[in-house]
Design brief:
- By secondary structure, the protein is α/β, with parallel strands linked by helices.
- The chain has helices at residues 2-17, 38-49, 81-93, 116-120, 156-170, 199-215, 271-276, 289-304, 308-311, 325-333, 337-340, 345-367, and strands at 25-31, 56-60, 97-104, 109-110, 113-114, 175-179, 220-224, 258-262, 280-285, 314-320.
- The strands form 2 sheets. Strands 1-2-3-6-7-8-9-10 form an 8-stranded parallel beta barrel, surrounded by 5 helices. It has a two-stranded antiparallel ribbon with strand order 4-5.
- Helix 2 links the parallel strand 1 and strand 2.
- Helix 1 (2-17) crosses helix 12 (345-367).
- The two termini are 14 Å apart.
Length: 376
């Protein structure tokens, strides 16, 4: 046993010395760049993300791509195949796992605008009787945040699968992120197909349907984790947790699904809950640097204090950016001292990168330290 432990320590020290991290995932999630921003974003990957140790990049593509299988779903001035290949090439160069995201199930509208899927296919709308207001406000009587597509519509997956297949292929991706966060409309009483059904089973069935389709090409499914957490008993609330009875889906979904567990105000230790349920998990931050640091420390502590079977489920950390690429890069390269003193997405990313590097350096130092082995 002693020989095995010494070997593992030496292996870990060697791996870290060659630039590998204690985490499998040191990630960034951000919207895909616009067509005019691709070259600048490639430079950002080369000059900042790769040297910073970022090894996973989730790009929220949605309909910002010139789909060939479904040209009716192209957004305005979308990315072309040659644009995507620039992103693929730079990520391959630096061994960054590039993962495209298309929001599925929920987030099919935003404020007073329909998303492209429901704009083109209004029959997929879970709540067609609820109209988007001219001036959006929250809260509202309809509990409208974002619309959903009905997962039981007989034609919706024919369209969804075409999009998934094409985007996975062009990105040469090993994983696909389906979003699936903040789904407030599910099993709605106005839906002729979903009304009266168990929301947890509806949600789980949709996750498993997407996952089973991706498995055909050996592609992993990633989703946000909020709908799998009980927002009432935990006190987490309706955004970072579910208050519409989807939380029980955690026991019904495939264990191969990767969970992106986002908490932006505190480093809530829910990754332990996902890991105990047999799911691999990533802790996600947004704009509070201290939260990012605490999540890094928390995930490292979970790994250190777990059995090998549990430790492998804590994949690492991922910073999330919820502003367009151009405004984020302006913030990143031209920080405002007043903003940096409060909440900053750019500073939060820097804090996460620094915290991971500190742990990696500490681990290298300690695994390379020669400790005498006492004879019994």
């Amino acid at each position: 046993m002693m020989k095995r432990n010494v070997f593992l320590l030496l292996f870990l020290g060697t791996a870290l010395a060659f630039g590998q991290s204690v985490f499998s995932v040191n990630g960034l999630c951000i919207s895909a760049p616009l067509k005019t921003e691709v070259d600048e974003f490639v430079g950002f990957i080369e000059s900042e993300l790769a040297p910073g140790g970022i090894n996973t990049l989730v790009l929220r593509v949605d309909f910002n791509y010139a789909y060939e299988s479904r040209p009716e779903l192209r957004g305005d001035n979308p990315l072309g195949k040659e644009d995507v290949k620039k992103l693929v090439a730079v990520c391959k160069k630096y061994n960054i796992n590039l993962i495209p995201q298309v929001n599925l199930l929920g987030h099919q509208s935003w404020h007073s605008s329909l998303g492209k899927l429901l704009e083109v296919y209004p029959q997929f709308d879970e709540t067609p009787t609820i109209k988007l207001p001219e001036k959006y406000e929250w809260p509202n009587d309809d509990r409208l945040y974002c619309k959903s597509y009905c997962p039981l519509h007989p034609e919706v997956h024919e369209v969804v699968f075409d999009i998934m297949d094409e985007i996975v292929a062009v990105f040469e991706a090993k994983a696909f992120h389906a979003g699936m966060d903040e789904v407030f409309y599910l099993a709605h009483p106005d839906c002729p197909r979903c009304q009266g059904r168990n929301p947890a089973k509806l949600f789980a069935d949709e996750v498993n349907k997407l996952n089973n389709h991706l498995k055909k090409t050996g592609t992993a499914l990633w989703i946000w984790g909020d709908r799998l957490l009980d927002g009432t008993d935990s006190g987490i609330g309706m955004w970072e947790g579910s208050m519409n009875n989807t939380a029980a889906a955690i026991d019904l979904i495939s264990k191969s699904v990767v969970i992106c567990d986002w908490h932006y105000e505190k480093a809530i230790p829910t990754p332990a809950y996902f890991a105990m349920k047999g799911l691999r998990v990533i802790a996600c931050s947004w704009k509070k640097p201290e939260v990012a640091k605490e999540q890094v420390t928390m995930m490292h502590s979970f790994i250190q204090n777990s059995t090998p079977e549990m430790a492998e489920k804590y994949l690492g950390v991922m910073h999330t950016v919820w502003s367009p690429v151009d405004s984020f890069l302006k913030e990143y390269y031209n920080p405002n001292p007043e903003t940096e003193a409060k909440d900053s997405q750019a500073e939060c990313l820097r804090s996460m990168i620094t915290a991971v590097k500190n742990i990696n350096n500490f681990t290298v130092k300690n695994t390379n330290h020669k400790t005498p082995i006492h004879k019994e």
